[in-house]
Every structure is written in C-alpha cells, then in structure tokens.
C-alpha cells in the first residue's frame, strides 16, 4: 500500500469515526422525531425522492458519492516488446480503491516485478506495462475495477481527438515571508488548439485540492495558469502541484513553497503558531487546536494565549488568563448559535509573537441542532401532509449512559456521554458532579455547573488541582425533575496524558542538487499523536541554526532547499505533537552541497563520417545531461537490418572510447546497419541512445571530402561567437584545403542557409561576428578540397546570441616584477569545474612557454619568457559551467607594448612633476628643490654635490615632504667652493630617479652675486628698522667734533651692530668712512663713500612687478640736496596715475603700470647735487617680450598677474568663465584646484592655458555642487605663486547669499 493510500485510509477512518460520533446524536434525535410523529401519515410523492437523491449528490462532505469514471482508459495497439501506459480518472468519496484486471484476472504488480507498475495520484490512475509480449492469447483485455459502496467498471475506448499537453515556463522552488504576496504560474500548450474546449485546471497543496478563497486566487488566461497567494502564512508552505486535465490525458508540475516567519516585532520573540482549527464544536465550548512554531526566538516558549472574535465584529477577547503549553484548549463562555473565529499567540521571556492566521468560523451549536436543520428541508416539503397526535405528559429523565473522560490535561478535563433513553418529548439539560479521590467512598459529590446548565452531552472542566484524582458523574433534568446520576467514571488524575515525543534517531543527509540536500531520519519511538517533524540546519562549525521548514512534515524524509553551493552543512530534527517539541536529534555528519552524481543521458545525432568495405566511422553529439561528472567514455553497439527487420545488438568496443568518433570494424559489405551509443561516467553507464538511421556499409568513392564533425560554440556573446570543429575523416581524392561556415536562424526554413565567409578558412575555428542580439542561430561547416566542397556537417544545437550574466573576458596583467600574465575569472564554478587553457584553440600541454596557476575562481597563465613565439590566440574554457569561456589575441604590436610596460615595472622610475631648480629666498638664502609625482612612506633621498654625498648640517638644511613629494635643500649663502653640480637621488622601493642642476661659470657667478646682494639688502633693511624702533642705545662713546658712535648688541639673534651718528651732515663731511669689527675669531671691514652722491649710484635696472614694470637704482645716501629727473627717449617724463616715481631708503624708482608698446624705448635718470651730475640709462626695447609684464630678468619666477575676482556669486544653470594673465620665464605650469584638490578638464570644467600667458576657467552649467574655493597654481623653476577665488551658487527661488571672504589655510 502506498503512502498516499495509507494517508487517505487514515483520513477516511478518522472522518467516519467523527461522522459516527456526530450521527449518534442524530439517530437519537430521529427516534424522538419518530415518537413525536408516531401517527404521521406521509402521502407518496416523487418530489421527496428526487430531493433526497439531489442532497445525496450535493452533500458538502461528499458522503454517499459512488465512484464514477471521469476519463475512461483508451484502447492501444502496440508493437511487441514496446512499453505501454494506460490512464483513467475516477471520482468518488471516500477515495475509491482501484484494481486492474487482465482477462478478468486481477493484476498483482508484486507477482511480476518490473513488468507492471501501478500509480495513483490526484484521482488519476495509471498502469504501465514494460516490454509487452504477446502470449498464447494475443488479445489483451484490461479493465480497472473501482470498489466502494457500489462499483464502476470502465473499458478502454478511443476518443475522436487526442490532445497533447505540455507545461512550460514552470515555477520553481519559491521562498516567501509571512505577510508577502506570491504568485505561481505555468504556461500550458495544448495541441491541437480548440477554442471552444478548455482543459480542467486544478491546484493542489500537499495532495489537497485548493479552492478559491481570500487566501488563494486562481486564474486561467487560456494559455497560462496562475495561483496567487494573497497573504502568505506558514499554513501556505507545502508542495504545490498544477494539474492540467484534458479528455486524453493529464500533465502535472510540482514545486515546494517555503514560507519564513516575519521579522518579530520584539527581538527574540517566537514565531507565530499555525494551523488553528476548531476540533470539537458544541454549544457550551469549542476545542481549539494549533501547531507549535519552529522558531522559538532563542528561548523556550512559555505557553500560548487563545483569542476569540465573534463573526461580524473586530473585537478580540483573550480566552485564557495564563498561558497554556498544551496545543489544545477548550474555549467556554460562548453564546449559543453565534459563530466565532479564533487565533493563537505564543510567548517567551522576550515577548509575544504575532498572532496566527485566524481559524475558519465555527458556530456554537450541538451536532444534533445541525441535524435538525437538515431535517427542516424535508419537514417543509411534507408539512401540509402531516397530522400530529396530542402531546403526552413530561417524565423524569433517566440516567445518562457511557460517561467517559475523552481528554485530560493539567489545565482541563473533557467529559462525554450519551443522553438517557427515557427523557420524554422535551429537551433535557445536564448537571456535572465531581468528587476527589481523597474523599472517595463518601457522598461528597460537588456540582460543577450550578450556574450554567449544560445542554450538550459533552463538557469541559477547569480549575482542577494538578496531580489529584477525580471521579465524575452526570445527571439529567427537565421540567419534570432531576433524574438519577450516571455511573461514575474511574478515578482520573489531572495532568498531561500525552507525553512529548522522544528525539528522532540518526539523521542522514544525501546530495540532491547544487542548492538542496535530501535529509532522512529515524522516526521517534513510541510517539503518540505525532504532528510531524521540524528540520534545522547550520553551516558546519558555525552553530547558527535556522529552520528548513516552518510547517511540520509527517514523513521521515525531506528536501532542504535554498542552500549555498559548495558550503558544508549539518542538520538536526525535532518531533512535535500537541504536548510540545522533542529534544533535538544528534547532529548529522557535515555534507557539502553539490549536485548528486548520476549516469549521463544518451548521446544523439549519430552520423557516418566515413565508410569503406568492411568498416564505418561514426560520429555523435555529447549528451545534454552528463550526470554531474565528466564523461569517461562511450560504448557503441551495432545490429544488422535485413529486409527492414533489425537483428540482435552487438558490442562494437569492449573498452570505452573518449572521442566522439569511432570506427566500427568487421562489418559486411553492402549490409545495412543500425547503431546506438551509450555514455559512461563515474556513476555508471547510461541508457543507450535511440537507434540511428539505417546506414549501408559500402566504399565511398566521391571526390569531395566528407562532413566535418564535433562542432562546438565558445565565447558566445550578444554579437559574436567562436565556432570550432574537427576535420572530416574522409578527405576525398585530395587533402582538405579550407572550410566554409553556414548560418541560419533556428526557426528559418532550410532554404535560409547562407555563408558566413566568402573565402575559405584554413583553420578549424572561426569567429562569427555581426550577430543580432537575442536571435537564435544554428551553424554547419563544409570542407573543401581540390575537387570541390563536400557534404555539410550536422547542424549545431540552437545557440542564442546573448551575453550571459556574469560573463567576463580574459585580461592582461603586468605585476610589479614585470611578469606578464593572462587572467580569467569565473563566478559559476562547481566543485568539478576546471580551467582549460588553449593556444589557437588547441589545449596547452607544454609548460615550457606558459605556466598555469588556478586559485579559487581565478586562473592565471604566466608567460615564462615572452617572445614572438608566443604570438597567437589564447583561450580559456571552464568545464561544468554554462559555457564560460573567453579568448585574447596576442599580436606583435601588443607584445611590444607589454614588453615595454614590463621593463618599466622591472626598472621603475619615480615620475617628477618638476626637475631640480634653484631660487633665491629672503636674506639671500638659496633653495634647491624638486617635486616628485608620488612617494610612499618608504621613500628616501640622497643629496650629492660634485659626486660627494652631503648631509644635514650647519651649511646644508634638508627637507623631504613625502605627502607632496617636495624635496628641498637650503644654503645660507653661496661661496666659491659651492660651484659645481648638485644632484638629488630619489628611491622608493624599486623605483628610482635623479635630477641634477649645474651651477658653473657665469650662471653660478650671477646667482652668487644676486644672493650676496639680497643678503646685504636684508641686513640693511633690518638696520633701518632697528634705528626707528630703538629710542636709546647704551655704551655711547663721544667723538671729537659732531660725531657720536654707538654699539648695539641684539640678544635675540646674537648679532652686534655698530652705529655712527652724524648730528648735522654737510659738504665738509664728504669722504670715505670705514668701520672695522674685531673679536677673538678675526676681523672684518666695511666702507662707505660719501665723497660724491651721484657717482655712488648703481646701474639702472628693470624689475617686473604685479602692477607692471619698475626701473630702479640705489645711491649710497640720499638727501634733499640731490635733484633727480627721469627721461623717456630723451624727453622728461610727465608723471600720471599710470607712471609714478619715488624714493624708498636709498632706492630711487620709476613705476610703469600696465605697460604697452608705447612704453618701449630708452629710459634715463639724471642726478644733480649742485656742482656736478650723472646720467644712468637703460634700454627697455629688446628686453620686453610680447607680454610686457614679463621682462627678461633672471630669475623670473612664475606669477599670476591678475584678472581673478575674490568672490563670484552666480545663479544655478548659468555658465561661468574667468580669465587671468600668467607670467614667468620659463613658461610656468598651470594647475587648477578645487577645495585643495587638483582638477582636470572635462565636459563640465573646461581648463585652458593658451599662448603661455592666458589661463581660462569655464563651468559650462553651474550647479550647487560647484560652490567652493578655487585656486590657480603657477610654477616654474624659479618659484610658485597662486591665486584664489570663491564661487557661490544660488537657486533662483532662494535669497541671494551674502558673499563670503575666502580664508586661506595656513
């Protein structure tokens, strides 16, 4: 007996038992009706008989529904040894038992194992006969017999139309969460298509037919069946089956749906209970049952609360004050005749769960009352034909019968009894009495329901002391009085009679698919009223358990889905009944999730590649399913075909062959043969292929070559693929010298074949391009020799032109050591996948040129010594995937570029932003500096002068900023010994670089003089400042005449200054003044010539400034008696706002702002002191470049000459353009910054530097993200300068923001 039949028998038996319990009251009620209607006279009426027959057929519980054939089996005519399968569909309740007969003799499948196979599913019954053999009696009569209260016999018949049903686009295993909506659907193809005919569409969950409700909605569109679960609950978990039934046959598809608990409102709260049902319904109480959840939230469930709600209202009332642990509870306090729904909530120490799905409505009425309603219909029909006799007087009822305790827990006890036989014609009520065992033997019975009389023959008692024993009895009463008590029950101890089941036995997991595992276990021993089992899983070693199912299953085998491929899992199982959940079983052994290995499917498309007088070469295609393991070989069978009658199969090869081509020898010339091929892997040898066509063994004499074979498509992308093939076995009269590839759409007719290549291809591979994305193609190949083009190969399977998700291409990598590698990654790996590298599509076996290393999902092919020998196409194929492959073509130009990159990586160079340069700082200090692109924390610098290392000390001060890459060295002054070559040597890991600066000859002399001049000027300016800030000086020494000398000691920088004061200077003070300074270290002198003011002036010089050009000269001393005149081209200069002159200390200057071409020419300054004069001249023409701001003056550092505002406020969506002038020689480098980060020109920011002097900044369309601080940084070998401005963007609807003054960071 199958599990399904056993289940239905148990359900049927339980149903009949409940029916007997239900009808016992009905029979009693019928007796009362007969007593009341003893003198009723019924007039015969055919209407009554028809009404009874109608109700028999339309009864809701399907009782009295005799079996009948919905679809009868069809007649079949079959070949000998051919398998045949017969079907029929039968309805009826309880489910009919089906017996198949052959020639009026019942068929026993066990008597002939393997010959007969009988199946029953969803009222569809089938008989399969394997390899039917004609016996002495060639007539086979099969008859299925159906047995129930009646029987139906169906004989095979043939329908006029045979329908073929195919279910496509099937739904798979699905996962949902409580509260979500889920849809399951399949497309159904029925041939032939009849518009007026509609198939029967049925949905099942766990073999139970689903009917439309608010929880489940069905839809049939004519070609697609859909089931929508509107609000998922754990009750919806299970195996869903779609059954499509036609007049000819039926098709089914099944998949499991898992429903997880919704996230708890309180962290750690348990999951909601499920399957809330009303088990025993009476007018006084209703027993509510449920199933415990699989998730307890991490702490044990303390109990459950039951809530009720009257139908038509939304007010929920809690039925129990304290939580109950038993998964059954009698709810009392109901109003007779009203309907209620119920729900249950679980609680643990963390909090309360969500409520369960509400139960179906239940009316608080006795079954007898329901029976009366059934009889009311008959009463209405015969009312006008009824005559009732006079009533008899009421009598005291007798004692109730068969009192028993039908259920006992520590929370309640349920009693059941039968009404007394003597109770009169009026209704009766019952009083329940109890007595404790401790007072047994006395007349101390206590009435339990004093205030609430019981009207039904069942009652639930509460508030009994746990552990005590009680006896019970019942009395009947009516208007005539109270009857005698019933016989007392045996002593019943208050407590749970149902124990928690024991833990299940050994748990054994086995492989199933890449994402599922089959778990089986030993059933719990001595488990009573077992509801089912919960399975839990965890990653091996993690101890983090999650439920596999949220609805208990009754069997001892379950498929756990939703697991991660190649991960290892352990499992454990718990049993559950109404008393609670058992302890967990022992953990299973860890199992790695991967597909189970099976024998491969049969090969197909057997063709002949060559034929000679006594042998033939066969070719075939690889099976579509290889069984999860590599195919280890093939076996070929052949048989002779004589006059169309095939003979016996013979083995062509004893040992397996690995190629998909084989020569079958020892054949007979001009004989016809058929062939079949079997594939083998580590799981075994698969079933043979279908027999091939009939081939004749004869010598081929054609001149053209035979067909190529073993076509294979790799690197399939949306617009290209690579087609590979093997050369034909039969070459023809000359060797093959080329191939032609043909292509057509998969659904196009045979006339649509067209060529891909106009010129023949000499290789056995070709890349086919210009495919249309989404189109499906087939390909074939033809070989050519000198005689012509031969027969085409067998076409490939249809190949869609699409790039599969996750597809990657081979990439080239050159590491830090300069090693060149090809890398391919694949995310679809299985445990059996391998990376296969090829060159020119021939597998690489020699590791002399290439070394392959695979780690995880990445494979690297490294060139040992790259050279021109390595040019070619490199490809990589990943086995046991959905065709993951890619290729890379290494060309001569590509190799040269890679070798250059490799050399740069082997011998890396630190890039420099600027070469070594020198500039003068304040006080005449000399700064040598350069800037590298990027330096790490390990970078270091060596400073070399004339091939000698120099280091930090009193003369040299070094600084290295690794963040900016700036390397600096400072010298206080330049001496004669400092003439030579300065070099900075940089090293950062393996990367190195150096930069040198040669300072010799005139270049050094000029720089040295400028440094000395700047140094003296600084000291001179420091002295003037000190004089103004020093009100008195100590240690004055009086001199003769009008001179005063003073010595000032400056403690702040340990310097001493000697001052000589002339109280009133005049011409007689003219002369040469000298000061001598001596101490223990030596002496020094300094002179001042006051003999001639004019002759003491320095040559006229030119300097570029921010405003324009400045001409200046220095005199030894200056007073008001010296008259100065400036001339331009021998004409006195008229001073304006643009041209000004002035004196600062001993410097006399002429400032020309915004010079133009008119300002070119000869400038002169004339001095006159009353008795003589002097003229100094300078030629501006020739020293001024195209930009008069840039005067040839060495050094000329980079400068931002102006043009940028401080703040720019602009409306969003507008365009911003700013331009500024840049000066410096050499031409500076220009860098733009935003918020201290370097900017680069793009479509949004357009940065230009034109003619070496105009820098422009443009924002094409301003948005709020463009607000911020911007800077332009100009730099050359003599210095760096920056200009800053702020951009503020406002939205038109907003108030214009106030301009902000930018604050530069320190």
TrEMBL record:
Keyword NADP: no
Superkingdom per UniProt: Eukaryota
Predominant subcellular localization, coarse grouping: cytoplasm
UniProt key word Cytoplasm: yes
Record's GO cellular component terms: M band; myosin filament
InterPro entries registered for this protein in UniProt: FN3_dom, FN3_sf, Ig-like_dom, Ig-like_dom_sf, Ig-like_fold, Ig_I-set, Ig_sub, Ig_sub2
Segments forming domain Ig-like: 67-135, 138-258, 792-891, 1195-1288
A Pfam family assignment: I-set
Keyword vocabulary terms for this entry: Cytoplasm, Immunoglobulin domain, Muscle protein, Repeat, Thick filament
Name of the protein described by the UniProt record: Myomesin 1
Organism: Denticeps clupeoides (denticle herring)
Organismal lineage: Eukaryota, Metazoa, Chordata, Craniata, Vertebrata
Gene assigned in the entry: myom1b
């Amino acid at each position: 007996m199958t599990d399904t039949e056993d289940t239905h028998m148990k359900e049927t038996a339980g149903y009949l038992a409940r029916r007997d319990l239900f009808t016992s009251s009905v029979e009693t009620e019928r007796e009362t009706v007969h007593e009341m209607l003893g003198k009723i006279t019924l007039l015969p009426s055919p209407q009554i008989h028809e009404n009874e027959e109608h109700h028999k057929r339309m009864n809701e519980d399907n009782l009295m529904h005799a079996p009948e054939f919905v679809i009868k089996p069809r007649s079949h005519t079959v070949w000998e040894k051919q398998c045949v399968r017969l079907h029929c569909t039968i309805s009826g309740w309880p489910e009919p038992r089906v017996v198949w007969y052959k020639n009026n003799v019942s068929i026993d499948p066990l008597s002939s194992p393997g010959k007969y196979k009988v199946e029953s599913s969803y009222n569809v019954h089938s008989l399969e006969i394997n390899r039917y053999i004609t016996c002495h009696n060639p007539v086979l009569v099969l008859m299925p017999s159906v047995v129930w209260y009646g029987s139906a016999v169906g004989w095979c018949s043939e329908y006029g139309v045979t329908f073929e049903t195919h279910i496509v686009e099937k739904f798979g295993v699905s996962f949902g969460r409580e509260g979500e909506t889920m849809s399951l659907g399949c497309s159904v193809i029925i041939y032939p298509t009849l518009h007026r005919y509609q198939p029967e569409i049925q949905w099942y969950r766990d073999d139970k037919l689903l009917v439309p409700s608010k929880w489940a909605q069905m839809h049939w569109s004519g070609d697609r069946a859909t089931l929508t679960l509107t609000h998922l609950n754990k009750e919806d978990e299970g195996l869903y089956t779609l059954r499509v039934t036609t007049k000819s046959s039926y098709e089914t598809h099944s998949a499991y749906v898992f429903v997880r608990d919704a996230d708890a409102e309180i962290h750690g709260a348990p999951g909601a209970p499920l399957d809330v049902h009303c088990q025993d319904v009476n007018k006084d109480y209703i027993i509510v049952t449920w199933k415990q959840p699989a998730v307890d939230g991490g702490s044990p469930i303390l109990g459950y609360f039951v809530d009720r709600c009257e139908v038509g209202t939304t007010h929920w009332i809690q039925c129990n004050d304290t939580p109950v642990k038993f998964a059954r509870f009698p709810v009392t306090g109901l109003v007779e005749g009203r309907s209620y729904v119920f729900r249950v909530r679980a609680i643990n120490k963390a909090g309360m769960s969500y409520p369960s799905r509400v139960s179906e409505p239940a009316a608080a009425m006795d079954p007898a009352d329901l029976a009366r309603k059934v009889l009311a219909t008959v009463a209405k029909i015969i009312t006008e034909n009824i005559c009732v006799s006079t009533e008899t007087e009421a009598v005291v009822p007798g004692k109730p019968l068969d009192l028993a305790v039908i259920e006992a827990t520590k929370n309640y006890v349920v009693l059941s009894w039968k009404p007394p036989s003597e109770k009169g014609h009026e209704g009766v009520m019952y009083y329940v009495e109890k007595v404790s065992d401790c007072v047994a033997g006395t007349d101390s019975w206590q009435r339990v329901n004093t205030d609430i009389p019981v009207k039904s023959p069942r009652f639930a008692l509460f508030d009994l002391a746990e552990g005590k024993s009680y006896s019970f009895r019942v009395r009947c009463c009516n208007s005539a009085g109270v009857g005698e008590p019933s016989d007392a029950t045996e002593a019943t101890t208050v407590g749970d009679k149902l124990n928690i089941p024991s833990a299940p036995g050994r748990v054994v997991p086995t492989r199933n698919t890449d994402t599922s595992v089959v778990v089986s276990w030993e059933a719990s021993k001595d488990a009573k009223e077992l509801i089912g089992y919960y399975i839990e899983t965890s990653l091996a070693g993690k101890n983090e358990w999650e439920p596999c199912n949220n609805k208990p299953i009754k069997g001892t085998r379950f498929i756990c889905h939703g697991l991660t491929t190649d991960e290892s899992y352990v499992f454990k199982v718990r049993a559950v009944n109404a008393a609670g959940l058992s302890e967990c079983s022992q953990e299973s052994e860890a199992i790695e999730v991967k597909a189970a290995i099976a024998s491969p499917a049969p090969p197909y498309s057997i063709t002949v590649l060559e034929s000679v007088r006594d042998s033939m070469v066969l070719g075939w295609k690889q099976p579509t399913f290889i069984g999860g393991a590599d195919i280890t070989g093939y076996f070929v069978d052949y048989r002779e075909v004589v006059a169309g009658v095939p003979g016996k199969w013979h083995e062509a090869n004893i040992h397996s062959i690995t190629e998909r081509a084989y020569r079958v020898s020892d054949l007979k010339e001009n004989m016809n043969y058929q062939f079949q091929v079997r594939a083998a892997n580590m799981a075994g040898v698969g079933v043979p292929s279908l027999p091939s066509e009939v081939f004749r063994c004869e010598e081929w004499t054609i001149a053209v070559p035979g067909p190529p074979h073993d076509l294979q498509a790799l690197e399939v992308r949306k617009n290209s693929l690579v087609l590979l093939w093997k050369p034909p076995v039969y070459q023809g009269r000359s060797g093959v010298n080329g191939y032609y590839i043909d292509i057509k759409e998969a659904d196009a007719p045979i006339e649509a074949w067209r060529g891909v290549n106009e010129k023949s291809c000499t290789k056995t591979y070709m890349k086919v391009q210009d495919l249309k994305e989404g189109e499906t193609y087939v390909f074939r190949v033809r070989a050519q020799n000198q005689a012509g083009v031969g027969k085409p190969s067998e076409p490939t399977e249809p190949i869609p032109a699409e790039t599969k998700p996750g597809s990657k291409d081979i990439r080239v990598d050159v590491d830090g050591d300069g090693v060149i590698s090809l890398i391919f990654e694949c995310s679809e790996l299985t445990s059996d996948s391998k990376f296969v590298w090829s060159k020119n599509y021939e597998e690489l076996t020699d590791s002399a040129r290439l070394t392959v290393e695979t780690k995880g999902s990445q494979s690297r092919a490294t060139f040992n010594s790259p050279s021109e020998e390595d040019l070619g196409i490199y490809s990589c194929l990943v086995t046991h995937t959905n065709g993951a492959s890619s290729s890379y073509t290494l060309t001569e130009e590509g190799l040269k570029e890679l070798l250059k990159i490799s050399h740069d990586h082997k011998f890396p160079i630190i890039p420099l932003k600027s070469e070594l340069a020198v500039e003068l700082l304040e006080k005449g200090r000399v700064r040598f500096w350069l800037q590298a692109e990027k330096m790490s924390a390990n970078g270091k610098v060596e400073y070399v002068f004339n091939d000698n290392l120099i280091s930090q000390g009193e003369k040299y001060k070094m600084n290295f900023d690794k963040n900016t890459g700036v390397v600096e060295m400072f010298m206080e002054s330049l001496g004669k010994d400092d003439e030579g070559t300065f070099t900075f040597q940089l090293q950062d890991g393996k990367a190195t670089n150096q930069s040198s600066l040669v300072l010799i000859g005139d270049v050094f002399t000029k720089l040295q003089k400028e440094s000395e001049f700047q140094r003296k000027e600084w000291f001179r300016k420091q002295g003037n400042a000190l004089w103004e800030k020093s009100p008195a000086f100590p240690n004055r020494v009086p001199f003769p005449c009008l001179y005063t000398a003073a010595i000032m000691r400056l403690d702040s920088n340990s310097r001493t200054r000697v001052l000589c004061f002339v109280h009133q200077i005049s011409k007689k003070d003219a002369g040469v003044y000298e000061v001598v300074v001596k101490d223990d270290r030596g002496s020094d002198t300094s002179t001042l010539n006051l003999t001639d003011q004019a002759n003491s002036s320095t040559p006229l010089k030119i300097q570029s400034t921010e405003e324009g050009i400045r001409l200046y000269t220095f005199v030894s001393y200056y007073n008001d008696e010296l008259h100065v005149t400036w001339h331009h081209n021998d004409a006195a200069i008229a001073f304006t706002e643009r041209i000004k002159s002035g004196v600062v200390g001993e410097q006399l200057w002429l400032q020309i702002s915004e010079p133009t071409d008119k300002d070119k020419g000869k400038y002169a300054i004339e001095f006159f002191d009353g008795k003589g004069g002097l003229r100094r001249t300078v030629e501006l023409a020739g020293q001024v470049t195209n930009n008069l701001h840039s005067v040839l003056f060495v050094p000329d550092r980079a400068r931002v000459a102006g043009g940028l505002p401080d703040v720019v406020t602009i409306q969003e969506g507008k365009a911003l353009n700013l331009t500024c002038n840049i000066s410096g020689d050499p031409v500076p480098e220009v860098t733009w910054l935003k918020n201290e980060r370097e900017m680069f020109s793009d479509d949004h920011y357009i940065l230009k530097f034109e003619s070496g002097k105009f820098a422009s900044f443009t924002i094409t369309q301003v948005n709020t993200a463009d607000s911020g601080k911007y800077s332009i940084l100009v730099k050359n070998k003599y210095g760096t300068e920056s200009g800053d401005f702020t951009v503020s963007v406002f939205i038109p609807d907003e108030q214009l923001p106030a301009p902000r003054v930018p604050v530069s960071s320190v």
